């Protein structure tokens, strides 16, 4: 038990007519009681995020660069931080997609600066859910001010006195906090005394992980940029973040260009040699810990792991965590499970070796705006279905067109996943790493974020759009590429959009192993198949015609016989085809006859003859 009262441990003494005041206070950091003799700094610490400091035990072990890796980046930003680089900008922004290693570089960089006494402060934002939240932007400037106070006693004393005079300083808005906790105390020191902190580097990692959203991110950038522009603080500011749209904007304005040194970390196979070094060293440590022979892993195995990593360090580090885990099958079997991923075989019933990467991707998906999450899943589902090998390809902007989104809406939805995918000027989606789509396709890994969870609602949505257009029309178009005035084509967009919507809907209906749900099957009862006959028979949809529009087995059993049934009527002989290849699709006046024709084995539709 700690005795932290007045004169702890003293005994056998007498005080006469004395007035004593105990100005010490106690601060509990990481379950250790620390006596703090500066009440103002104590309040500042309580308003900070000590768990987000670069040397916090809450982050132990922090992500850091493996020895021998990332030297190019670290050397570049170190020379910038020390003022020996040709880049003299007072701000640095290092950006890159999720998992590329930004936080590891920021941590190693901070540790190197600390050894040189050039680190003013470092704060690592994180959305990690737990008791110790590290994503509150309103605790950023108190955290930075407290750390700088520990580097300069004079600054610390000045700040302590200011907070004692006005304890509300730590609760003010971010803009006021910056002025009251950093700018004004530095001004009080005067030029000479302020020179002690001149040129110190302040590191802010994970700006995109602030919990208050884009507004807070922009405010932080603008507050610091204004200070740099007006020279009210003497620091160098280093930011590390994902290239989220709302962060890219402030950093790329004309007035920010002369202030900021931009460094882009891309996913690149150029670092395969560094990943090889990392994997080799870490697998050797696993071998030594478990007393295994050198032959337990071969150079070929390491080559497979490097290829699986695809230039992404997070994949390699996740693999090492999995292989070295003592809670699963053992290093040998766990390594084999990872190697099996190269052939797409995960092993029945096995624990997925990329659990930590899955948690990482889950975190990204969970922080997508809830209001547009269904739209995001629909986009990703179509991206997977329509651009896969041997499947339908859609032109630029096609996915947005199918879902009924404007270009701005489409970009906004995809922008929320900027850390794992890239959207080119032609609205083509490119993933930074294939593991993200692997994650989305496997419901045992992605759960509520599995793209197939959106399949039923997407099919029903497209069907309803088609039904709505058909219900406003008096009959099928006379030609597949020309609609008359009776067609409300504005509801779809244009004739090509209608063609695309028809083929995409029926493509989704024929997804093997994913039959139509009850609601979509029920809605299909009233679908006007006769409306699509010219479109279906056109060359534009030729790749879709290799099967019935809706195979019987894909329809819910309650509606199967009412939507698709074989016919044995004499009309089959008029068509010159075998009876087994003739079906009636739909019901009532909306039904059509469906048959095969020619060597292409394509299916053709015609309105069902009412005289049979």
Automatic annotation (TrEMBL):
Write out the entry's keywords from A to Z. Repeat
Q: Which residues form the Nephrocystin 3-like N-terminal domain?
A: 76-242
Q: Cite the SUPFAM superfamilies for this sequence.
A: P-loop containing nucleoside triphosphate hydrolases (SSF52540)
Q: Which domain of life is it from?
A: Eukaryota
Span-the-membrane segments of this chain are none
Q: Which Pfam families does its entry note?
A: NPHP3_N
Q: Is the keyword Repeat assigned to this protein?
A: yes
Entry keyword annotation includes Repeat: yes
Annotated protein name in UniProt: Nephrocystin 3-like N-terminal domain-containing protein
